[in-house]
Amino acid sequence: MHEPRRLSFLSSNLFLSRVCLAGLMAGGNWEVRGLFGNEYALERAVDEIKRMSKVPEFKVIDRRNLEVVLSKDDAETKKLVRNIITIAHGFVESDAPLGTLDRKKAEVKAKKRKAEEAKRLREMKRR
Questions:
Q1: CATH code of the domain in which 25 resides
Q2: In a domain, 118, yes or no
Q3: How far is residue 46's CA from residue 102's CA, in Å, rounded to a whole number?
Q4: What's the CA gap between 48 and 20, in Å, rounded?
């Protein structure tokens, strides 16, 4: 699936996959999410991220969304990931601490649900 990479700072006989390497490199406390117009643009961004010297941990959420988890302290990698998403004709949907976008989406969903419930109750009272 992924070709192994040698880690020079660990034992010389230790080989890890790119996925494991990404987990070691990423601090895991900052996320950059990208939204793409089509699958081809998403694939191009993923290919460019795989070519980076320090490959961050990333996950393709669905056909048009990409999540890249990296260290908050690594401003250079964060800027590079943002540029890769933009160059691949994507939109940086979130550049925030890990989980912030999910919380915001859940809050909006709960607010809409509450408003719909209030509207339904008002309509029931009219009848």
A1: 3.30.70
A2: no
A3: 22
A4: 18
Write down the pTM of the prediction: 0.64
The residue type found at 35 is L
pLDDT digits (tens, 9 = 90+) for 30-88: 899 999 999 999 999 999 999 988 888 999 999 999 999 988 888 898 999 999 999 99
Q: How many domains does the chain have?
A: 1
pLDDT in tens, 95-119: 888 888 889 999 999 999 999 999 9
Instruction: Return the beta strands (E) in the chain as ranges.
Output: 5-6, 15-16, 30-36, 57-60, 65-70, 90-97
Residue 67 covered by a domain: yes
Provide the residue range defining the domain that includes 79: 14-98
Q: How far is CA 77 from the centre of its chain?
A: 13
